[in-house]
Batch of 3 targets.
Target 1
Amino acid sequence: MDSTENRNENSRIKAPLANMQPALFVVLSLMVVFISYQIFGGLLSLFIYGDDLKTLDTDVNTARIIISFSQFMFILVPVLLLNMLQGTRPKETFRLNKPKQSVFWLGIAGMVVVQPAIQSFMYLQNLLLKSLPFGGEAIKQIKELMDALEAVTLNLVNAHSIGEFVLVAFVIAVTPAICEEFFFRGLVFHNFERTMISSKAVFLTGFIFAVFHFHPFNLIPLILLGYYLTYVVYYSSSILTGIAVHFVNNFLSAYLVFRYGKEGFENPEGTIYDNMPLIVTGIISFVLFIIILFFIKNKGTENKDKIVIDV
């Protein structure tokens, strides 16, 4: 071990949280980020708007800027501080490497390909929820609450010009792609890998990513998204892949709202037969997605032990 490695190891040992169990450290990190973003981010909004949050509807650009600032300040900054307190090198925790190109582009392709499958699933899920013989009223009330929250989000995403769409893309696509990837595919995934096999760490990271978004009706698509993002980061050996794929997913959603006024192509007023093209397309897209997963694993496993070139 050379002198540089000795210094790095010594600095890790001296870090305040260096000896904390990885799983416990993940729990602490989730609590810190949740409190930081929800509490302090909420206080920031309250400080700017006071108790008249109706002005969010008329001052949308300010709300967008607050959201973006809050994610960088109350998610990314705490994540970097927690990593420093744990004493792990940022390059190691956040996989600050040049991604393997084949996996990078396959990862982006997979995210584009899977979109119809996600939209088809959401349409079929909504049909199922409406036809449940029990618990319908409770589910309806929860659904109405989530729809109301989504309506607020849609107002933030909806843009009326190219210039406004650029701001929306930065807030909706760029900001979460950076902040959430450093948190989940960086800090959380790295610590899970220290205490369990990689396949379990990939799934658990994706699951926690989904639960952390607090949207019960989007849980399964979010688990798929979280799993896939962790999967491509692992096999590309770079967080840059996760950032790029995350950006593509969010950008596509924002663009659909900008172009068509909604995220999906389903006809909510039509019958299942009216939406059959969407369902068939969804099945095909899911099959193609599974094939891409296979190729990503195959390409990512090749020469896995070779040193990845730094950025």
Note: The CA atoms of residues 151 and 157 lie 10 Å apart.
Target 2
Amino acid sequence: MANEDLQVYMSDHLAGARAGVELAEQLVRTSDDAGERQFFQELCDEIEADRQTLEGMLEGAGGHPSVIRQAGGWLSEKLIALKMRWDDPSGRGLTFFEALETLAIGVLGKRSLWRALAAVQPHVPQLQAFDLARLEARAQDQYDRIERKRIETGTRVFSEGGKAGR
């Protein structure tokens, strides 16, 4: 695998991580429930730590965050947020469910990143200092927590006929 390809791959995921942090921050800001805010703040902190780890990996591999990719990730997150507000202006039913789903999909992508990097780790000296198995396990734990909340929310929203509160 060419180092440049690896840098592009990590830079793409770094842009996604930035969008994930922003989405988690939005969920912290918009929650009316203290326990829910704590849930999202912990996720936000973990996603940010993973983002910083990935940025360190990228820089260790000789790359730098791509301004264009970062802007694309930021714009994507804003478009997703706009779409969700359009569908559910209250932000408490479908919007909340879709935000959880978006976050879950992003975390699955991150888990796949860690797996791919673990596969090439023996061949890329710059990756050998990182505990990719631990990072993958943390991504799986994040996904499991988000997925429980997503299913709970979907059950409530869809069984109550939409526009349901959190």
Note: Residues 28 and 41 are 6 Å apart (CA to CA).
Target 3
Amino acid sequence: MLRALLLTDGQVSALALRVFLAVLFFPHGAQKVLGWFGGPGLATAVGFMTKMHISTPLIVLAIAAEFLGPICLFFGFLTRVAAFGIAVEMVVAIFLVHLKFGFFMNWFGQKAGEGYEYHLLLIGMSVALMISGGGAWSVDRALTQRR
């Protein structure tokens, strides 16, 4: 079963998808865990999510998906698992926060918050990676490739 989860071919498109998704998503996790990029840091992020009545196990999973997921994607390690975590995280973000602001991002600062179009883009990238796997230059491929 693990082999089936890791199995991927040498698609360069999957490499591009996972690296771009990792680069797009890593700063969000680093904001929450490390306080980088003007982020709140771990204690404040956990406190904020707790106030949203999210249970501690789900907070741990969400922060792991945001911080460890992009790292795994960058290297192509457990690509499908990391992509699934990011997709779930984005679906939850849409329903808990962004749905009420509509589809479009707040390009001109005229709304109270951001819409969910960015989140749909990340979900689409994640779904593509769940289908294809890590592709070229991935740890997944190295672990499953026949020598």
Note: Helices lie at 2-6, 12-34, 42-51, 56-75, 79-98, 117-132, 139-144.
